[in-house]
Design goal:
Number of helices of chain A: 8
Largest sheet of chain A: 8 strands, mixed
Helix content of chain A: 25-40%
CATH topology of one domain in chain A: Carbamate kinase
Radius of gyration of chain A: 18 Å
Oligomer: homodimer
Distance between the termini of chain A: 24 Å
Order of helices and strands of chain A: EHHEHEEHEEEHEEEHEEHHEE
Chain lengths: 258, 258
């Protein structure tokens, strides 16, 4: 393996079939080893409503009781994952769909019920890098949903950004790894009102200044801090960019060590 | 690989969690390489009804329009498959869940719309034995749902018995392979009213006699003829037995060449 690209897509790509198809064509064209991690988009909430279940979110996280766990397992690990796999195969990309339980490749534990009981929601413990290597060496492109397991027989609904981060850290032990978060904007903006104000590069030092100046705020803070943690722990670069710009090397915001 | 055991389970095992757990404990205890193929049980029909979809079956096969395809993909490749994988992992069996699209491991084509239009229903073309070998050599236990793909981006609902047969024929190219169909009875009965009348062994010759004498009839005829075809094409034995007897070598009906 010369290098590995790990890419995360969320609802803004998954929820629109045309956008998804265009993204997958670009993804299939990426050279070298690559890994995709996907969220579930709006489909899980829609199915919950059709089944008469109450959709309960706290701080943007889905409270996952047993019935909700069944829905997200069906939608994320089943429908969304297998549709992506079939589309990638048609593009000549030999993809394989994975939950964390498959090959025991990602282990998680159930989040403690205090202070907030999210139900069957998990936090990631780690990735089996040897299993990841076996799959990549077999010529496969792993495609992860965010359904993980606790090793004791219980599936867990995890945050797809956290899964992506963990997979990228595992990949970084095998080869130089670049992580790409596909975003609804063209990168981190210095002016939220101006889509052209993409900040090209953020380093640990420049981030402190951007934060002090109030240029990055709100939901971008945890995103960038997680990205900085990833590069600190061995990921070569983290890019936050628009899915349309996937193949444009210089597009978006690059977060790196220096 | 010294030998491979391929096992099929259907609704009578999947639909009852206690029965499923007991089966999986036995499955995990089988020595050597092994592969599981599962149907979907009643869950798909139940979900269809909850979603207000009409369940339409012709000759025991589900007519699969787009909405039905989404349901069976969610239930078979998502919920049932991932629950089985998580349970097997808890039993120390390093299982990996697969649709035919994953790793392009089983290819199928959509069944012609005439004489009966089943919709997104497929017939199997073949198994990628090299991919199967890669997974087995990585220490993995493949667990297949019956959701396949056409290689052009479309998922297809296939018959789980046919998937099992195709996977066993692929496995037989790698190592001596035994195929086990878990059945609601303890084997093929010579007297349908007597559960103790299991026929221990069926060969091509004895089958002709059993059929001529009217001892096997109805739904058993295609089952046995498919099994005879499998042994003719290289599978070492086909056993039809009860899931409870999985680890009992001599239980059930053994179908073999001589």
């Amino acid at each position: 393996m010369k290098q590995i690209t790990v890419i995360k897509i969320g609802g803004n790509v998954i929820d629109n079939e045309e956008v998804l198809n265009a993204f997958l064509a670009r993804f299939a064209a990426i050279e070298g080893d690559k890994i995709l991690v996907h969220g579930g988009g709006k489909l899980a909430s829609r199915l919950q409503k059709e089944l008469g279940q109450e959709v309960q979110m706290i701080d943007g996280r889905r409270v996952t009781d047993r019935a909700t766990l069944d829905v997200v397992t069906m939608v994320y690990a089943g429908l969304v994952n297998k549709q992506i796999i079939a589309k990638l195969q048609a593009l000549g990309c030999n993809a394989i769909g994975l939950s964390g339980a498959d090959g025991n490749i990602v282990r998680a534990h159930r989040r403690p019920a205090k202070p907030i009981d999210y139900g069957f929601v998990g936090d990631i413990d780690g990735v089996d890098t040897m299993m990841l290597r076996s799959l990549l060496e077999a010529g496969l492109t792993p495609v992860f949903s965010a359904i993980m397991h606790d090793g004791a027989g219980t599936l867990l609904n995890c945050n797809a950004d956290s899964v992506t981060q963990a997979v990228a850290l595992g990949a970084a032990q095998l080869a130089p790894t670049d992580l790409v978060f596909c975003f609804e904007k063209h990168g981190v903006l210095s002016d939220a009102e101006n889509d052209d104000s993409v900040i090209a590069r953020i380093t640990p030092d420049s981030y402190l200044q951007l934060k002090a100046d109030g240029i990055v705020s709100g939901g971008m803070i945890p995103k960038i801090e997680n990205a900085l943690r990833a590069v600190e722990q061995g990921v070569r670069t983290v890019r936050i960019k628009h899915a349309d710009d996937l193949l444009e090397e210089s597009a978006g915001t690059t977060i790196c060590n220096a």
